[in-house]
Specification:
The structure holds two protein chains of two kinds.
Chain A (H helix, E strand, L loop, with lengths): L6 H12 L1 H5 L4 E15 L4 H8 L9 E13 L2 E12 L4 E14 L4 E8 L31 E9 L3 E8 L14 E10 L2 E10 L3 E11 L4 E18 L12 E19 L4 E10 L5 H20 L4 H11 L12 E9 L4 E10 L4 E11 L3 E12 L10 E12 L1
Antiparallel strand pairs in A: 1-2, 1-18, 2-3, 3-4, 4-5, 5-6, 6-7, 7-8, 8-9, 9-10, 10-11, 11-12, 12-13, 13-14, 14-15, 15-16, 16-17, 17-18
Chain B lengths: L1 H34 L5 E10 L5 E12 L3 E6 L8 E5 L2 E5 L6 E4 L1 H4 L6 H5 L3 H4 E11 L2 E10 L8 E7 L5 E7 L5 E9 L8 E8 L6 E11 L9 H6 L5
Antiparallel strand pairs in B: 1-2, 1-13, 2-3, 3-4, 4-5, 5-6, 7-8, 8-9, 9-10, 10-11, 11-12, 12-13
The chains are: A mainly beta, B alpha+beta.
Chain lengths: 417, 246
C-alpha cells in the first residue's frame, strides 16, 4: 500500500473531487469544512527542554504563535468514500508551509449483512472519551484541544451485521515491514459487538507482527435517564515503548531513551456521564495505563533532571553535553499515550442555546499533576467558533508541571458547506 | 346482596375505565395518522429556528426513518451537521458523528438537547408511548375539540406528560403542552394541517420553547413515504461503517 500522505496526491484528489463531473454525479454526496485556527503557546521555564535551551540557546526552537487554515472535503458515492485535507500554516516567525493529505480513500462492496472494504480508512473502536485502550486500529489521539478528523490506516476489512450483532475482521497496514511502532506494524484485528438488555458489549482481539497478541472487552450501559456508565479493559502480551537504558552514567553520548519491550501489560478504564434536564453534563473517567512509565521510573527521571541541572554548575565545560542530555529527557514524555499510569479526568459542560461553556481537568494522582482546560463554543447556522485556554501544572515534581508548555490558548472558526 | 352490588359496580367501573382507555388510544391512533402516517415511514423534515425578534436563526434538514417497535433513525442533512445520525431503539439511543466513526451511547436527557430535540424530530407514535384520560370537550379557535391528558408509558420518551387537544370530528392534532420529567412545561406545540377543511396530514408543527430560549421552532414535513429499512440499518455499528445510507 503506497503512502498516500503526500501533498501532491491529496491536492490531486481534492481537485478531482471538486470537478463538476464528480459533484454532479447522481449518487455523489459532497460536503466539507473550512477551518481557521490560531494557537498561542507559553513556554514552561521549569521544563528540562527550557533549561537545556538556557544552557545552549537555540538548541530547540519552538513557535509561540501558530496560525492554521484548513479545508476538508468529503465525498461519497457508488461505494467510494474519500476525505481530503489541505492545510496552510504560518508561525510567529512568518514562515509559511502548505501541505495536504488524504484522511480516507476506500471502496466498499456489499449492502446487506456482509461488507468488504479496502483502502485508507478510519476504524474507531472502544467506548469512553479520555482513554480508549481498545481503539486498536485508529489509535486516535484523545483530548486534543480542537477535534480534528482522524487520518485513516491502510487496511482491508470484512464485516458481518445483523440487527444487534456485528463481527469485524481487519487487516491493518497490509504488507508493511515489521516495525516497533505499533501504529505502523502489520496486524490483524477483530471486534465482536452485541447489544442486549440495554447494554453494548464489545470484545476485541489484535495480533501485531511485532507486538504479538492482545485481548480486550468493553461495555456501555445507560443506567438511568440521566446516567451512562462505561468501562474498558485490555491485556497485552507485549508492548514496545521508550524506556531509559541501563547505563548508569549521567552524561551519555546518544539518547538514553530507547525502545524497550514490556510483557503482560494491562490497561483499564471506567467512566460515567451524567446529564441533567437543564442541560448540564458531568463526565468522570478514571484509568490505568500499564504502558506508561512507572512511578519509580518517573522518580528516576526527576532525579536525573536535577543531577543534570546540578552538573551544569560544576562542569561548565560540558554544558553542551548536559544540554543534549536534558533535551533527551523530553523524549520520555512521549513514551506512551498517557504520561502517568493513574489518571482521573472530570469535565463539566453546559448547553445553553447556541453556547457551550466547558471546564475539564486531567489529574494524575501519583504526583498531583494536572491539566485544566476552560473553553467556550458557539454554534451558528453554518459557522461554529471555539476558544479556550489549557494550563499545565501541579506540584514541582509532577511531570505535567514539567512539560515544554505551561499554557496553550486557542481560537478556531469553522464554516461548513 | 350488598357485596354482589359492590362487585357489579366495581366491574362496571373497571369496564368503563377500559373503554375510556380504548377510546383514548383510538384518539391517539387517529392523531398519529395525521402526524406519522403508517408504522414504517421515511419523513423529510425541515426545522427553522427563529429568535425572539422573529428573525431566522437556523435552518436544519433531517431524514427520519420511523419504524415499528419504537425504532427510529434520524439522518442530519444540513451542512453544519451533515453525516451526524441518531439511532433510537426503544429506550436505547446512539449518536454518530462523521469525524469519529464511532457510535456514542447517549442518555434520554442528552436526547433532549437543542431547540427541537431529537424526540421532536423523530416523531414517535403517541398511541404506543402514552396512555391517559379524556379531560373533556373544549373550544379551540372557536371549534369544538377534545382535551386529553397523557402520561408516558416509557421513561425515555422526550416528554413525560402531554396535554393534547384534538379536533372533535377527525381527531387531528391542534395543539399540545409538552412537559419534561420534572413536570416543567418545556414546549408548547401547535399543528398546521395540509388542508384546513379536509385535513389528511400535519404539514407543520410550531414549537415555542418555555424552558430557556423562548425561541420559536417550526418543524415542516416536506415529504412522507412508506419505507421499511433493512435490519442492519438499526445496528449502530453498521451506521458507523456506512457514512451514507441512501
Amino acid at each position: 500500500m503506497p503512502d498516500l500522505k503526500t501533498p501532491a496526491l491529496a491536492s490531486l484528489l481534492a481537485a478531482l473531487l471538486c470537478t463538476p463531473a464528480f459533484a454532479r454525479a447522481e449518487d455523489a454526496d459532497f460536503s466539507g469544512q473550512v477551518r481557521g485556527l490560531v494557537n498561542s503557546y507559553t513556554s514552561n521555564s521549569a521544563s528540562p527542554l527550557a533549561i537545556a535551551n538556557q544552557l545552549v540557546p537555540g538548541l530547540s526552537s519552538k513557535n509561540t504563535q501558530l496560525g492554521v487554515m484548513e479545508t476538508e472535503l468529503r465525498v461519497s458515492g457508488k461505494g467510494i468514500n474519500a476525505v481530503a485535507t489541505l492545510q496552510g500554516q504560518i508561525n510567529d516567525g512568518g514562515r509559511t508551509q502548505a501541505t495536504g493529505w488524504l484522511n480516507e480513500l476506500y471502496g466498499s462492496l456489499g449492502d446487506g449483512a456482509w461488507q468488504f472494504s479496502a483502502g485508507k480508512k478510519t476504524i474507531a473502536w472502544d467506548v469512553g472519551y479520555g482513554f480508549r485502550p481498545n481503539d486498536v486500529v485508529a489509535q486516535e489521539k484523545r483530548r486534543s484541544l480542537i477535534s480534528t478528523t482522524v487520518i485513516g490506516k491502510p487496511l482491508a476489512s470484512l464485516e458481518y451485521f445483523n440487527a444487534n450483532t456485528s463481527v469485524s475482521m481487519v487487516w491493518v497496514n497490509p504488507g508493511h515491514a515489521a516495525t516497533t511502532d505499533i501504529a505502523d506494524e502489520q496486524a490483524l484485528a477483530a471486534r465482536v459487538y452485541h447489544h442486549t438488555g440495554g447494554v453494548d458489549l464489545h470484545g476485541f482481539g489484535r495480533y501485531g507482527q511485532k507486538s504479538g497478541g492482545s485481548l480486550g472487552a468493553a461495555a456501555s450501559w445507560v443506567a438511568t435517564d440521566e446516567m451512562e456508565i462505561h468501562g474498558s479493559l485490555r491485556f497485552m502480551q507485549k508492548n514496545t515503548g521508550l524506556r531509559m537504558n541501563t547505563d548508569t552514567s549521567l552524561l551519555q553520548r546518544t539518547s538514553p531513551w530507547q525502545n524497550n519491550t514490556q510483557n503482560n501489560v494491562v490497561q483499564a478504564m471506567l467512566g460515567a456521564n451524567y446529564t441533567t434536564e437543564s442541560q448540564h453534563s458531568f463526565f468522570l473517567e478514571a484509568w490505568w495505563d500499564g504502558t506508561a512509565l512507572s512511578d519509580r521510573e518517573w522518580q528516576d527521571w526527576n532525579k536525573r533532571n536535577l543531577a543534570l541541572q546540578g552538573s551544569a554548575n560544576y562542569l561548565p565545560q560540558m554544558q553542551q553535553v548536559i544540554a543534549y542530555n536534558l533535551a533527551w529527557q523530553n523524549q520520555a514524555l512521549s513514551a506512551s499515550g498517557n504520561i502517568r499510569r493513574k489518571n482521573v479526568f472530570a469535565r463539566w459542560s453546559w448547553q445553553k442555546n447556541d453556547w457551550q461553556p466547558s471546564l475539564d481537568i486531567l489529574w494524575t494522582p501519583e504526583d498531583n499533576g494536572r491539566i485544566i482546560t476552560a473553553a467556550l463554543a458557539w454554534q451558528g447556522d453554518r459557522i461554529s467558533i471555539n476558544g479556550g485556554l489549557r494550563m499545565y501544572g501541579g506540584s514541582s515534581k509532577a511531570i505535567l508541571a514539567q512539560l515544554p508548555d505551561s499554557k496553550t490558548a486557542y481560537v478556531s472558526a469553522t464554516w461548513a458547506f | 346482596m350488598k357485596t354482589t352490588i359492590h362487585i357489579a359496580a366495581l366491574l362496571l367501573a373497571a369496564t368503563a375505565g377500559l373503554a375510556r382507555a380504548d377510546e383514548v388510544n383510538d384518539y391517539l391512533k387517529a392523531a398519529d395518522q395525521f402526524r406519522v402516517g403508517t408504522e414504517n415511514m421515511q419523513v423529510e423534515t425541515e426545522i427553522t429556528t427563529f429568535a425572539k425578534d422573529g428573525s431566522k436563526e437556523k435552518e436544519r434538514n433531517y431524514l427520519v426513518f420511523s419504524q415499528v417497535n419504537h425504532q427510529s433513525l434520524v439522518l442530519m442533512k444540513s451542512p453544519a451537521e451533515k453525516g451526524q445520525k441518531v439511532l433510537m431503539l426503544g429506550d436505547d439511543f446512539w449518536m454518530l458523528l462523521p469525524g469519529s466513526q464511532r457510535p456514542l451511547r447517549i442518555t434520554p436527557m442528552q436526547k433532549l438537547l437543542g431547540d427541537a430535540s431529537i424526540g421532536d424530530i423523530a416523531t414517535m407514535s403517541w398511541s404506543q408511548d402514552y396512555t391517559g384520560k379524556i379531560v373533556g370537550e373544549e373550544k379551540c379557535n372557536d371549534k369544538p375539540c377534545v382535551h386529553l391528558s397523557l402520561n408516558a408509558v416509557r421513561k425515555s420518551v422526550a416528554y413525560q406528560r402531554i396535554e393534547l387537544w384534538l379536533g372533535k370530528t377527525r381527531h387531528e392534532p391542534i395543539k399540545a403542552d409538552l412537559y419534561v420529567q420534572s413536570e416543567k412545561l418545556a414546549k408548547q406545540a401547535s399543528f398546521i394541517l395540509d388542508k384546513p377543511q379536509t385535513p389528511t396530514a400535519v404539514s407543520e408543527m410550531i414549537l415555542l420553547d418555555q424552558l430557556s430560549s423562548h425561541k420559536e421552532t417550526r418543524v415542516r414535513y416536506l415529504s412522507r413515504k412508506q419505507k421499511t429499512v433493512p435490519e442492519q440499518w438499526l445496528n449502530p455499528m453498521f451506521l458507523a461503517k456506512n457514512p451514507s445510507l441512501e
